[in-house]
Amino acid sequence: MNKQDLIAEIENLKNVITDASISIWNNPEISGEEKFSSDLMKDILKSNEFEIHEINNVDYAFYAEYGQGSPVIAIMGEYDALPGMSQKKDTKHNPVIEGGNGHGCGHNLLGSAAMGAVLAIKNYIKQDNVKGTIRFYGCPAEETLNGKVEMIRENAFDGCDVALSWHPMNVNTPIYNSYLANNSIKFKFNGTSAHAAAVPHLGRSALDAVELMNTGANYMREHVIDKARIHYTITDAGGPPNIVPKEAESWYFVRAPHRKDVTEITDRLIKISEGAALMTETEASHKYVAGCYEMMPNKVLFDLTYKNMQELKGPDFTLEELQFADEIQKTVSVHQVEGDINNYKILEKYSMHKNVVSKEVAQEMYLTGSSDSGDVSWILPMNCFLTACWPLGINPHTWQATSMAGSEAGQKGMLYASKVFASIAYDLLNDSSLVESAKKEFSDKTKNNKYVMPLK
Ligand SMILES: [Zn+2]
């Protein structure tokens, strides 16, 4: 098989990949509940001669392996949905179940493209007796930012040489600097309850502490780096107002481009919580819900991904697919669409991005979300790319993205992603110097900057 034959394998597998993405889209499961989705993928991989390895202590996590020896290439798949994102394949907001789960981040496409790629690569390894191993990683609970961190804790990625990942988006590009490091942390205050009218002087309000902590955090905003993000909600504000609240709780996310900044800001936030407790004579405690790293860029893999994305060219959408996407795009403001067009420096005039952005734009681009994929990039060389599965102006975690993730245009973006994976893997299997250079770059960058698991 030459590279073109391997890419053609993806077309041969089109129905398997598309059917999996539709089944998972029709059965949206939130983080930590992905039984149907992971079973479906395991069944397909098992019936295609892959050996399934379960990951201890992480529900619905596994890897499927085929081949012998090095390089060992990991392709990562995810399959969790989001609560409240239920949506039919429609151009207006139309939930399947009001308030139900839905694939607003397109992980049905994410997992299926990755699975399709390993099936094609396996056919190549088998037919041509190629030396090397391909692994599909079934990664649950990405939306709660803990699945891959827990998999790392269980040494699930041991033995891999490089990891490849992608995400459905509104643009075709590899990403370089990406994902904000994140801490998700809950602050709990314990006070003394009392009758709020009869003996308020005996009460010490836990809600007062929550409010004072939020005030302190809001004053801190002025004195953190520009790119940091701090957001919170009050998850327990006490009970009825005629009782001084004994317990109250807030939930914070701290994000920044580098893990060290997140750690530093979190430490300051903990001091603020202690200050609020001191002021109110309550007790403060905190619990880490999740934490993750930013993505460590790997120039070797970035360049390789860019080259292959350009060679393959972006997906070619039909008139019908474009019309559906046009209607979806009309549901958001023109400014939102223009913002994407300007940011990505896009010259074409279609709702769906068809080409690959310029290399300069790709290298400068920054995804402001957070992902536990970042953590994998700190334990082995990794790269991630995006393909256009929904129109410019549309963001993930919206009903529009759910709708597109179940549409033909979304599936085209997914098949393009499968082809990009297959092409990169072909190069890695045929040129060992690429794997060696990616690993060298990784070890140089992490020599004095080792991964420290954010789970506490
Ligand atoms: Zn996502």
Give a quick rundown of the structure:
42% of the residues lie in helices and 18% in strands. It is an alpha/beta fold. The strands form 2 sheets. Strands 1-2-4-3-5-11-6 form a 7-stranded mixed β-sheet, with helices on both faces.
List keywords for this structure.
Aminopeptidase; alpha/beta; binds zinc ion; four-stranded antiparallel β-sheet; single chain; 2 domains; Alpha-Beta Plaits; seven-stranded mixed β-sheet; 456 residues; 15 helices
Textual characterization of the structure:
The protein is of the alpha/beta class. It has two domains: 329 residues, Zn peptidases (Aminopeptidase, 3-Layer(aba) Sandwich); 106 residues, Alpha-Beta Plaits (2-Layer Sandwich), CATH 3.30.70. The chain has 15 helices and eleven strands. The strands form two sheets. It has a seven-stranded mixed sheet, with helices on both faces. Strands 8-9-7-10 form a four-stranded antiparallel sheet. A hairpin with a 7-residue loop joins strand 1 and strand 2. Helix 1 packs antiparallel against helix 14. It is globular, with a radius of gyration of 23 Å. The model has no long low-confidence stretch (mean pLDDT 96). The structure holds zinc ion. The site of zinc ion has 5 residues, from loops.
